[in-house]
Amino acid sequence: MLSVTGPAGFYMTPVNKVLLGVSLSSSLALLFPLQQYRHLCTYSYDLVIERGEYWRLLTSKLAFLDIKDIALCCMLIYNFRFLERRFGSRKYISYLLAVSVLSTVLEMGALILCHHFDISFTPLPSGPFCMVFPQFVQFFLLIPRVAASSILGVPVTGKTFTYILGLQVASGTAEYRLVTLCAVIAGLLWQYNFLKIQGLVSVPECVARVFNQAVGWLLQSPRPPTLDTPIGATLEIQRQERIERMEEQMLSTALQNSAFANNGAAAAEMMRPQPLNVANGPGIFGNFLRRDNLPQDNVAEIQHDQTSATVSEDQVQRLTEMGFSDVSVRRALSVTNNDISQATNILLQET
């Protein structure tokens, strides 16, 4: 599976590193040595609204209480580290705070509305779902969809595994569906700047600078030794470079897989001499036949057929199956004299 979220590690992602570390450590602590305090990290309508224990809105977001949630959500947090590289650490932590507030408000509103219609829920699942699932919106919008392979005819992209992890978490009980749905809606509201939330919830630059000077050196991660970073000056150019690298990898793999089965036929097709069309060839007979025996329309048609005959139909099929148009493939193969590697480069440059 192709990597679509950048290089491995926490290079340039200190906030994501803290989020993952705090979530994992607090969850494991409540799972083993501090089990007697697990009840402090749960919340429901009765506990918050009727008893007035509003502090549970905060403690319930500190740790996951289920082993499945710990494993899946920690993988999601790690996979979403690309967003901090894209936003920058200050904007990223502002984003996490904003979507957490929106998601929590939506959860409480949904609980109050359901209670009004006599729809009861058990205590909602605990954990920072309000920070994890809103990032699916940015993941969907910012990461391009490039098919890497297919399973039973269904295209599989580099994003499929992340979506499967999210569905695995959200497909539990009704309480899980409520929490994850509120989180995704919060991500959409932030994306469309609902109530000017992007400017309303923002970490001041001076505060970010103070924290960076105080603890930033503790959270720095070394640069990966084999970092394949786009060199484009803008985010759009960098994304286009990444897409082009993915396409080149996919085309190279597809050509290698099909070369073994079609190598003999393709070579024979390329080495087979083409019949000489005397009517279109040079010399006295060619000029005589073109001038006296054939209309100009037929001459153009014969010339087109001659050009098309020099193109290997097997190679045309292999390239059209990769998504290129038939006309572009034939033109590229004709220009490169059936050199499929050069034709592929021409087609990639045209797209």
Automatic annotation (TrEMBL):
<feature type="transmembrane region" description="Helical">
    <location>
        <begin position="133"/>
        <end position="156"/>
    </location>
</feature>
<feature type="transmembrane region" description="Helical">
    <location>
        <begin position="92"/>
        <end position="113"/>
    </location>
</feature>
<feature type="domain" description="UBA">
    <location>
        <begin position="310"/>
        <end position="350"/>
    </location>
</feature>
<keyword id="KW-1133">Transmembrane helix</keyword>
<dbReference type="InterPro" id="IPR009060">
    <property type="entry name" value="UBA-like_sf"/>
</dbReference>
<dbReference type="GO" id="GO:0004252">
    <property type="term" value="F:serine-type endopeptidase activity"/>
</dbReference>
<keyword id="KW-0812">Transmembrane</keyword>
<dbReference type="InterPro" id="IPR035952">
    <property type="entry name" value="Rhomboid-like_sf"/>
</dbReference>
<dbReference type="Pfam" id="PF00627">
    <property type="entry name" value="UBA"/>
</dbReference>
<dbReference type="InterPro" id="IPR015940">
    <property type="entry name" value="UBA"/>
</dbReference>
<dbReference type="GO" id="GO:0016020">
    <property type="term" value="C:membrane"/>
</dbReference>
<keyword id="KW-0472">Membrane</keyword>
<protein>
    <recommendedName>
        <fullName>UBA domain-containing protein</fullName>
    </recommendedName>
</protein>
